[in-house]
Structures are given as structure tokens and as C-alpha cells.
Design brief:
By secondary structure, this protein is an alpha+beta fold. Helix 2 runs antiparallel to helix 4. The protein is 42% helix and 12% strand. The chain has six helices and three strands; from the N terminus they run H-H-H-H-E-H-E-H-E. It is globular and about 45 Å long. It has a three-stranded mixed β-sheet.
Amino acid sequence: PEDSIYTYIVDQQMTLMAAFPAYNELRALGIENVKIKTYVLKNPAERDLQHLIKINGAFADSYFDSSDRLTSNAFIMLDQIVKLMNKYPAIKLEVAVHSDNTGSHETSLALSQSRAHLLISYLINRGINSKRLVGTGFGGSKPIAPNNTERDRKLNRRIDFILLNQ
């Protein structure tokens, strides 16, 4: 937010031409310095993980209900993560939970850390070794959108699944 530079991942499996509508949408929102970068996923575990994210999404709103319990969407995704980690026993996974800028910094940080712990606990209870998992709550410190509208804030309320030691 300090330098007004944001990253938005459209889709890791799209062609460059398929990214053009997203480019136009960002330009229409008034973002003048829009750049598109392509990145080919070569690691099979990373490709599989990105496919799961594409199918199930990574918005925190769909993983937690109003009482901060896991939703059925969360169970579906986490069970697929368990299968992925069993398929690739050498990988480690970071589960990074983010929030928007509503509420105090301390409250947002505590909420995201609690949610990260809940997600990691579920994976451990399903048989994944805790040494292969890292749960991190970032609060609102790493936004991917400006937090000016509800739509932007929803983008910032997300869960990043990141492969480590690839």
C-alpha cells in the first residue's frame, strides 16, 4: 500500500490472450500501470496445487463461517491438500492467511493467526506431519488490492497455499 504496487494473479493456466479481459478490467478501474507477466509452472506438485486452488478458490470467506468454523468448502479443499501431500511426500506447505484492513491491526493479526492454526490442525489431524507444515497469519499487512471497496477487501481476505522446498 505504501507504494501503490499490487499483484493480482489471474490464472496460472491461461494463455496471454485469455488474460486480456482482466487487463482491460484493471485499466477500466483506473489502474494505469498494469503489467502482465506469464509464468509457466514446471513443478508437478505446484501445478497440482494451483489446479486445486483454481477449482476450490482461496477466499477466506468461503473457508470460515461467521463463527470462524471451517465450512464444507474448506473441508473439500483441505482433504485435497492431504491427497496432494501424500502424493508428493517431499513437499512442505505454508498456509498463509490474510485479512483486509477493517478492524485494528492486532485484531486482524490474531484472527488470521487463529485461522492459520485451525487449517494446519486439520491437516495434522488428517495425518500430515507437522514438520511439513507452516501456518502463518499476516493480518492485513500484505494486501493484493487497495482495500477501498468491499470487492477489494474480499480479495485481501484470502488463504495462500505455498509450496516450500521444491
